[in-house]
Amino acid sequence: MIKRAIFVFIVLIVLTACQNTKEWTFVGETKNWRVVYEVVMEKKQESSILQIEYIGKKPIPKQIGYRIETPSGSSTEIGLLNDQGILMITDVCGECTNVNEETEINMAVEWGRQIELFTLQFEKIEE
């Protein structure tokens, strides 16, 4: 009986903790780039992952410049793509509290002498 009560108590704690987690995924694509920006807020902890993937036909560029503009600010950086043409950056946003399903995130990717500007839109991910 005590084991069952402890089990129920643990399940309730886990379910309550899961309700405090909010996740948003924003996606944008051009003829050369696919960008996925994920924001997770769990209680008062915020984290984000930005994945930039080269999907163009030409050889994969080694280095890119990128700019992401969120409601809480912007970030401009230079990064190196891996052999698969992917750059992953964690904790991009600093504070992500201003994002929601209506948020549009502006993105720019520059490589060589080219630049593409586009908008990331919220995309509901089925679980």
Automatic annotation (TrEMBL):
<keyword id="KW-0732">Signal</keyword>
<feature type="signal peptide">
    <location>
        <begin position="1"/>
        <end position="19"/>
    </location>
</feature>
<protein>
    <recommendedName>
        <fullName>Lipoprotein</fullName>
    </recommendedName>
</protein>
